[in-house]
Amino acid sequence: MLLLGRPIRYGLAGIRAAPGASDLHRISLLPITDRFPPMRPILCAATLCTAAGLLVPAAHAQSLRIGVEGHAAGEPVQAFVGDVVRLQIIADFRSLRAAGLAAYVTVPEAVFLIQDLGLPGQVGTQPFRAGPLFDGAQLATNLLLPESDDVAATVPGQQLDLATLFGLGSRGEVSGEGVVATFHVLALSPAEGAVIEIDNNPIRETKIVLSDGRTERRFARTEGLQIVVVDPVASPVEAQGWGRIKRVRTKTARYLSQAAGPW
User: Fold this and answer.
1) Is the dihedral of CA 185, 145, 172, 176 positive or negative?
2) I need a labelling partner for 159 at 20 to 30 A (CA). Which of 5, 9, 61, 199 fits?
3) Quick one: 245 exposed, middle or buried, by C-beta within 10 A (0-12, 13-18, 19+)?
4) pLDDT at position 261 over 60
5) DSSP-assigned letter for residue 13
6) pLDDT tens-digit profile of 23-45?
7) Which domains are seen in the chain, by residue range?
């Protein structure tokens, strides 16, 4: 038998008489503990958790998901052709202290057009704008991969790369849940369920940078976003007012003309 990791032995030296007992009941078997030093009831946290059945998973529960501005998580998302959908990358680090992260996103090419949120004069499309969670951190990578890139040429869809990291002289780390960055997409064509995905594979591996600035850890869970895109012109007129249809149709024509460029 084990008690707090120490063996308990029974023997003749442990046979003692109970006061006032009859000869038949005078003998009681007690453990021999005199040879061992007094034991302190020291239990590690893991032992207590195991006894209560409350062991915390080793992967913790850090998650990264894509959400829509103004929408609660899990709500169905629907947009009309011509709408600009304002998206958010939302991280939940729980109690983990993070100094940054690297996130990779793929957007369906035929359904959405990535909007450039960078400063005027910058080269290429810079799709991300920093969110409040990493306030003061640097956007080390903010890029829509061009078609000439090997990854973009191989992987279907449009690839967006994001990396944010605290630099010297900043607060250095964050925890809890919040918006890492925002990006906007223009709905170009109808789709029953276009999925904007967070890439998490050996080629494009989304990771957390821990507070030491060097150690990396994968998220326990990543979650993309499904959007239903509806063509307002093809939809029944009675389902919405003519003013809505006219406004969206005009906006769609304008955006599509801008995306196509000069003839």
Assistant:
1) positive
2) 61
3) middle
4) no
5) G
6) 444 434 444 444 444 544 443 44
7) 2-52 (no CATH), 63-231 (2.60.40.680)
